[in-house]
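Translate sequence into structure tokens.
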Amino acid sequence: MNQGVLEINDCGLRVFTGTDEILESPGVAVVENRQILVGAAALMRARSHPTQVNSQFWRRLSLESLKSNNARCRHHADLAYCHLEEIAEHCDLPGEIVLAVPGNFTREQLALLLGIVKESPVNAVGLVDAATACIGSCAPRGVQLHVELQRHQSLVSRVAVHEQAVLDMAETVSDAGIQSFLDAWARVFTDAFIMQCRFDPLYSAEAEQQLYDMLPQWVGRAMRQGEVMAELDDRTAKVNLRQLQDASTPILSRVRALIDNLAEANSVVFVSHRWAEIPGGAQLAERIHLLPHNCVAQAVTRRWGEIHSDAGALRLVTALSAAPASEVAVQVNSAAEAAATHLLFGHRALAAQQPLFVSWKDGKLEVTATPPHHPAATVTNHAGRLALRVDAGARLMLNGEQIAAPVNLAAGDKIGAADIDDVITAISVEHYGA
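Result follows.
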């Protein structure tokens, strides 16, 4: 019987067979009188049917009554059950599934979840705290943090790692989820369309839906290229990455405040893959490590024996064997005495007030202020610090080691590529005098 994982996160419930993701379904429902749409179908109608949307049913999982004319929607638990049924209809579920749950679920919510799952097509054989699983599989000894992005909030879990990884606490930052970021970015693009072509994307529910449908694609393009030409309803507006970073900063600042409150001096902050899609997400902490998208599935696969239960009543696993210290090797973005302010390339010191693009042509590195056809990486300035983001598929080196995750640049860091002699050096330029 094949094994897999169901990750409960209302940004998107994810199903894995082994370590392969086979489905992601957002935690959104549109409740009509005669039908309930859940997941991607609901997300595509959420803005055009705002009075019928419910995106809180996983966060507020309970038997609290809802006002609805649909007999299948009495409370949030009904919507959660509909979501699990929807997932089962759209993929071949593994025969045995471990549920990876967020640390902010209460005991009452966990009990209700297990009751819902028992009536659903999901054959659950284990229940584990997602943060503990991820941290335990790759973290060094000490007190570490795991930061997850949910639909309406961010979740910061503190895990103590010694011979075992043990969940210490989990706290949330309200109004700091993906929906808050989407709303902030929507305001940036709306202002740009109004200012540049006298077009208000919020003039109708249908246009607003199109705007929100395009946001992830536009933001991703801006993060790769430094700016994006957004097209909507035959209108075009330009938005640069700095505008999106500025819109994201108030939300990120509140998440950083909780991280600073829970972290210890040598804590590493492990962030989920979702933060790589947020402008400024790579600067959430001074010592940060970006987890792979299938981290929870990898962790459950390694510790299946500890998590799997033969008993009918599943218990929440919040303590797992930690990875041997000799096997732990994580790329940590460490703060240096001097943060980088410029890139030194040849005889030029380039200030990254606007995004700079790293590429190579004819065996030589190039640094330009305009996006090349095939950029290898983008260097951006966020709150006075330079961050390097490598494009997918680019084989770029930092200090002699290949990198893939976004990193902050410290003075002295050297950016290069295999078989290319050119080197770009991150430097700190200090100013003296009045």
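Note: The first strand starts at residue 3 and ends at 7.
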